[in-house]
Amino acid sequence: MDGRVRLYAGMLLTVTSLCTAALFACAGGNAVEAFAQKQARTEATQQTGAQPQRAPSGPLEGMVIAVDAGHGGYDGGAVGRVSGTLEKELNLDVARRVERLLSEQGAQVVMTRTEDYALCDEDPPIRKKLQDMQRRAAIIREAGAQMVLSIHMNEYAGRSESGPQVFFREDCPAGRLLAGALQEAMNTALAPSRPRSALGGDYYILTLGVPSALVECGFLSNRQEEAMLLTEDYRERVAQAVAQGVVNWAALPDDKPAPLEAVDRSDEPTG
User: Fold this and answer.
1) Distance from C-alpha of 235 to C-alpha of 246, rounded to nearest angstrom
2) Rounded to the nearest 5°, which phi and psi values hold at 62?
3) Closest to 241 in 3D by CA, of 208, 215, 222, 221
4) Spatial separation of the C-alpha atoms in residues 128 and 134, rounded to whole Å
5) Tens digit of pLDDT for each residue in 23-72?
6) What is the dihedral angle through the alpha carbons of 119, 120, 121, 124, rounded to the nearest 10 degrees?
7) What pLDDT digit, counting tens, does each position of 186-243 carry?
8) What is the mean pLDDT of residues 14-18?
9) d(CA 167, CA 5)
10) CA-to-CA distance for 164 and 197, rounded, in angstroms?
11) CB count in 10 Å sphere of residue 5
12) Which domains does the chain have, with CATH numbers?
């Protein structure tokens, strides 16, 4: 088993090294600038976050998990109702904590972004958001990820809504199982006043053909929850809950449902 894992990891490193060059060839604007800055400090295969980190043994050993920090760069996401804090900053912080915790459990983790940048050109031939999502998907595919966790913060017009909310791809049993494990772990660990159930949704990042979940960690539109999310202690608790949800999912019987096939988005509107 150990030999096969090492061989698999070696194959991943070879593939991702080749893919980095391709990503650079198609990247531009914000992404290129950020990648160039990272090149001065790290090896080329680490610049896009496409290289899974070597991990110790644990319940997630052998798994390659993609952790996607939502938004970034020009796209700030939701805004804290009181503090004005941008969602993208909190997403990245929680995503990095999740990366560390999953790695400690034996997983190889690939990050779609590791700093504050968007994965799109300044003036792309297609919509910025679409190009950004296409490049996130490319990193995930090229790394051979077996699971996707997309980290976000929520907001709502009313200020009373609160609590973590996990989404899965509509009508996907594999995604529903993963999202359910994550939602239960977050409800247990964070004790929201209104525990939620995982919900189906139509999100690009959930349609890549592997078990996937979009995790809304809390509502920046809620004064009390925003205040909690601004503290390192609570963000660590959120990350711990996400990681525990993945471990709980992995402990379920091996006959988990297969994910739906990846969606072909080659005809996605570009205007």
Assistant:
1) 17
2) 90, -10
3) 215
4) 10
5) 333 333 444 454 344 434 434 444 444 555 554 689 999 999 999 999 99
6) 170
7) 999 999 999 999 999 999 999 999 999 999 999 999 999 999 999 999 999 999 999 9
8) 39
9) 31
10) 9
11) 15
12) 2-250 (3.40.630.40)
Tokens of 216: 């809304």
**Tell me, what amino acid is at 269?**
P
Q: Report CA torsion sign: 197, 261, 250, 99.
A: negative
The 3 state secondary structure assigned to the chain is CHHHHHHHHHHHHHHHHHHHHHHHHHCCHHHHHHHHHHHCCCCHHHCCCCCCCCCCCCCCCCCEEEEEECCECCECCCECCCCCCEHHHHHHHHHHHHHHHHHHCCCEEEECCCCCCCCCCCCCCCCHHHHHHHHHHHHHHHCCCCEEEEEEEECCCCCCCCCCEEEEECCCHHHHHHHHHHHHHHHHHHCCCCCCCCEEECCHHHCCCCCEEEEEEEECCCHHHHHHHCCHHHHHHHHHHHHHHHHHHHCCCCCCCCCCCCCCCCCCCCC
Here the tokens at position 14 are: 């070879």
Q: What is the CA radius of gyration of the chain?
A: 18
Distance CA 92, CA 243 (A): 15
